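ENTRY TYPE: paired fold submission
RECORD: A
CONTENT: sequence, then structure tokens
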Amino acid sequence: MSSNPMSSNSAFDAIIVGGGHNGLAAAAYLAKAGRKVLLLEKLEHPGGAAVSAQAFDGVDARLSRYSYLVSLLPQQVIDDLGLRIRLARRRYSSYTPDPHDAGRTLLIDNGDDTATAASFAAVGAPDGEFQAFTEFYAGFRQLTEALWPTMTSPLPTRSEAKDLAARAGAAAAWDAMTERPIGDIIAKSLQNDLVRGVVLTDALIGTFARADDEDLQQNICFLYHLVGGGTGDWDVPVGGMGAVSGELERTARAAGATILTSADVTAVRPGGVVSYRHAGADHTATASWVLANVAPVVLDRLRNSDPSGGTARKATPHATRNPNHLREGAQIKVNLLLKRLPGCWMRL
């Protein structure tokens, strides 16, 4: 939107800071419930990391720019919001060259156990390693199937979640996930280092965590990779991730939510007061509820700032902040378009 349709000081039921897919989903739900909603997005378009772009000049293809797979989108949300999206099941979950032998690769083919077992043997994994790999994930699947329904229900307590796991026969998986570093469990369950590395990808990708960290952040990452749909399957959205965020935006706007792009939030103050800059002017809006679809460290900064960039109140000492607010992560994504599969894949 190129202009602000509101006065310089407007009241809403809810203001959402950040227009990523979670912010858009919240805006759609609240607007459909009859609430007056304002969503503020700093970029020129909503969607956050869930967007599609024409990555290569002269090539008519739109690729997911950052996030590129769908796992943690419950069917209930698709149904509730009437999202018109198509998801395709991803057959191959990983393709990993052996760093010690460029001619060997480990291919995990979710549609062909025989081919995957042969790939395990081809990289020198010991007899029984594929079976151990399969049983490793099957044990955690009992846990994720029990926990998945809680993603759309009030957050259970630790003891309630533990009881759910026990009733599903996943008490051992619960203890493994919540009591010990996932690196220990992987090392005890699997023998081949390449296979261990593939499994550790689920725990470490996008983080600076280590396999044996005592704070178990790697376990949390691992669980998020496995819990989607209860099965851990990751789907590819037809049309790229922009198709998902585009549908969320469409249904939010259709329900009456106000979505402002190029709206830079400068402060969030007590009483639900949000200051932002849009179309070259400063604005203030108020709401009964303010929802943050930004990183915790960004929210910390906004809560400790005034609209002009000064300090509105004494900043919270780092010692009393949630240490995860300062946690950094790292990942890189390389987009490719191929006319044919690489030769090493074709030989498998």
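RECORD: B
CONTENT: sequence, then structure tokens
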Amino acid sequence: MNYLKLDHKYVWHPYNALPSKNKILPVKKTFEQTIVLENNKELTDAMSSWWSAIHGYNHPFLLKALKKQSKIMPHVMFGGLTHEPASLLCKKLANLTKLPSVFLVDSGSVAVEVALKTAILYQKAKGKDVSKFIALKNAYHGDTLGCMGVCDPKNSMHSLYGDYLPKNIFTSISNLKQTIKKYKNEVAGVIVEPIVQGAGGMKIHSPQYLKIARKLCTKYDLVLIADEIATGFGHTGKMFACEHANITPDIMTVGKSLTGGMMTLSAMCTLKNISDTISNSEIGVLMHGPTFMGNALACAVANASIDLLLKSPWEKRVQNIERTFKKELESLKNLDIVKDVRCIGAIGVVELKCDGISQEQGQKYAQTIQDICIDYGVWIRPFGKLVYSIVAYTITNDELIKITNAIKKAVEKIDDARTK
């Protein structure tokens, strides 16, 4: 494990200092829903590799697609060239999202950046010179600058980057209708996380606000952007969370689960009207072109992942996960330290009370919870006051119970320590 010394010296981990202030676990290998550490300790992954490994790890069907494509063409620039894996993938995404114009990029944040740029270009092409957006309180859309500009200022990195970030308009879901009406002439569009708000608090909402947003964006010709990076490909029990409201956005961003967690790839999908309006205007083109856009390896794996998902009983599997989460985590509501327990699809969330708890103490709680779960053979990564799990759809009932038991033991221990 000499590489741990190298890691400590050279590797700057996400949301961390260098050298790391938090415990970094060395991983030897993965399989199915399991992470194997260098000391051979096995951890059931309750995070599905940041919500992306929906088929578990090392799935043979995905590996076969990867190996096959690697022998043909790992990558070629996408400017002026194309290839079969990308064309097939864009067709599949167009059919699934009902949005026929697809722009492939290499991360979720970049997909959102492109979505924002596309909305601005669309409005400019029609003679409306606007660049602001309406976003929701508690929103999280990524860590690049444009994305941070549509993240809730109170729950993101606005305090660190200040005036360098774009200025947008934030509203609660209850005031969304009034806010759209008030600022309809000043914004390019509205961006939302459908049904589940992720890193901004793992909040779960009624579909009604999506219907309101869709109706008003249509009425005022605003671009409705649905950020389905986290929710897409079944996490909420529907293929896409917008389906809970039976609406189609003007733009949808997808990522994370697109390749089953094996490769980095994301996409922005939009209506033909939007791509046509931009393409037929003086602007003419979408000015964005990542070097590894349309990577052939990633596209081949994404095609395989979508095929694997559609051929599987994923809906029944996700329903079973939701039932288990609700049944097993419900008892935690009785603890003094627990504010709420909420579940949808493959997502289970325990929110702790933060009244009277300093940020430092909250971080200690999170680390303690993580340590206890590791002792029980479960990998989990709490943040702030949230202890949550988003699992692979292929998880077994025994593995799921193992995860919920570990979460319960950890939260109960924190509750005991706090009440003594």
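NOTES ON RECORD B: Residues 3-58+313-419 form a domain with the Aspartate Aminotransferase, domain 1 fold (CATH 3.90.1150.10). The longest strand covers residues 338-344.
STATUS: closed
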